[in-house]
Amino acid sequence: MELRRGVVSVVTGAGSGIGRALAVELAGRGSHLALCDVDVEGLAETVGRCEGRGVKVTSTTLDVADRAAVFAWAEDVLAEHGAVDLVVNNAGVALSATVEEMSFDDARWLVDINFWGVVHGTQAFLPHMVAAGRGHVVNISSVFGLIGIPSQSAYCAAKFAVRGFTDSLRVELEAGGSGVSCTTVHPGGIRTNIARNARTSGAAEAIAGPRDEMVRNFDRAARTSPERAAHRIVQAVERDRRRILIGADARVFEVLARLPAGVGQRLMVRGLGRWRPGR
Q1: CATH number at 8-270
Q2: What are 189-217's pLDDT values in tens digits?
Q3: Ramachandran quadrant class, 274 (left: phi over 0; alpha: psi -120 to 50; beta: rest)
Q4: Contact 84, 26 (CB under 8 A)
Q5: What residues are annotated to the active site?
Q6: What residue ranges do the domains of the chain occupy?
Q7: pTM of the model
């Protein structure tokens, strides 16, 4: 799909990180924008960075976990822009907790946003693209959608689900000759605020040190900028890629995912050193 001047792009989670970088990148290419986020101030800042480029920018404060609100937003976007060519389901949150410690409410909160938010965004806009015979859906998974990571069970489950959902969608769209396509994105460590904004288990919240250490470790490991990630995603859309990895660390995770389960998981246990569930 050619992201030429005048196309209409929808981006969720546009208030920061990859979502903001994508909005700015697309605006620079002449794409009109429909943006949403729960972060009112962050969303306003993104809008400010995109305006003045000769494109129409609309924004809505929206929780993608709210299915009815997402569908209502889709109708508003069609009314305001007249079409939708690209939908990027990017909104996401993080949770750090072992399976034993993790509360059901926290797990449901994450899955409602990271998985159901993707489903809602896809289903709300897809019929309009199919009717037009063109368009592209981008769903953001993660390298944690390739292998299971301790203390990230809910996050991994949601990101694995995004991968399966989008792979299935791609086959359906091709088999149906819809003219619409889709891409799954597996970013590695991207320099965003997701770790700082993460929920943690009760035990982790009671000990500020480990949480601070988690954020520091994430910052050290996150080598890829949101701008670089956004550029790679735009390239993937234009080249109609089925799935992309972003960052050298993502390629390492893919190699681990291809190993026999016993080998990959034992390597991970060794790498974790003294980490123990419930520590």
Answers
A1: 3.40.50.720
A2: 764 454 445 556 554 443 334 545 554 44
A3: alpha
A4: no
A5: 155
A6: 8-270
A7: 0.87
